[in-house]
# Entry
Amino acid sequence: MADEVNKTAFLEIQGRMIELTGKLKQVQNQMRNKEGEKKRAFLTLEELGQLSDDTNTYKSIGRTFVLEPKSVLMNEQELKLKDSESAIASLQSSKEYLEKQIVEVENNLKELLQQDPGLARQIMSMSVI
# Structure
C-alpha cells in the first residue's frame, strides 16, 4: 500500500517537474526574443539619431515603404524599447518564480526518495528508453 502511494507521489512530482521545466524553457525563449527586439530598437534609435531632422525616413509596412517623419519613427522605437524592457522585467520575475518552484519540487523528490529507499532502487533499476 505504501509502495503504491509513494509511486503515485513520485509520478506526480515527476509530472510537475516536467511541466515546470517546460514553462521555464518557454520563459527563457520569450526573454531571448524580447532581448533581440530591445537590441534592434536600440540600434535603430542610434542610427536614426545620427540622421538630420530633414532626412526622408521610411517605415516598412509589409512589402511597402511609407514616408514618415523622423520624430514618429524615433517615438515608435523608443516605445518598442520601453515595452521590451518592461516585458523582460516581467519575464525575469516569472523565471525566478519558476526556478524557486523547481527547487521546491527537487527537494520534495529528494525527501520522497530518502523516505523510501526501495523506491529509489526501483527508479535506478528502470531502463531509460
Observations:
- DSSP finds three helices and two strands in the chain.
- Strands lie at 57-61, 64-68.
- The CA atoms of residues 52 and 70 lie 9 Å apart.
- The longest strand covers residues 57-61.
